[in-house]
């Protein structure tokens, strides 16, 4: 099935790319989650709008990405969440939680889709997360999760 990506999908492409994928993958995963739309001749016009919006949000140069990386890595990001007696969280820390905590700590706006969690954060303590700022630049952010 031919689709137009509306968001960046790891291993598949960036927003605005027209790609060919298996029907089930598109129907059961990409389309319901809003990561893609079906390709049509009319939808081809939307591709340019999606690409323009991506260019505005995207970090243009490696130098700019390195500058943001130094700002982010210098931050101490703290989150207060509800947890049980054993240090297990009620739920988990999401990418959106981390993005808002980076902003609250005085850092730049970080797109939640660019935050990579190795595994879900479900315990109190110190954790490392990766932020993809540019295809060649990745920042490591230390996140301190404490009980509220």
UniProtKB/TrEMBL annotation:
It comes from Streptomyces macrosporus. InterPro entries: Ribosomal_bL9, Ribosomal_bL9/RNase_H1_N, Ribosomal_bL9_bac/chp, Ribosomal_bL9_C, Ribosomal_bL9_C_sf, Ribosomal_bL9_N, Ribosomal_bL9_N_sf. GO terms for cellular component: ribosome. Binds to the 23S rRNA. Transmembrane segments: none annotated. Belongs to the bacterial ribosomal protein bL9 family. Keywords: Ribonucleoprotein, Ribosomal protein, RNA-binding, rRNA-binding. The keyword Ubl conjugation does not apply. The keyword DNA damage does not apply. Residues 13-40 form the Ribosomal protein L9 domain. NCBIfam families: L9. This is Large ribosomal subunit protein bL9. SUPFAM superfamilies: L9 N-domain-like, Ribosomal protein L9 C-domain. Coiled coil: none annotated.
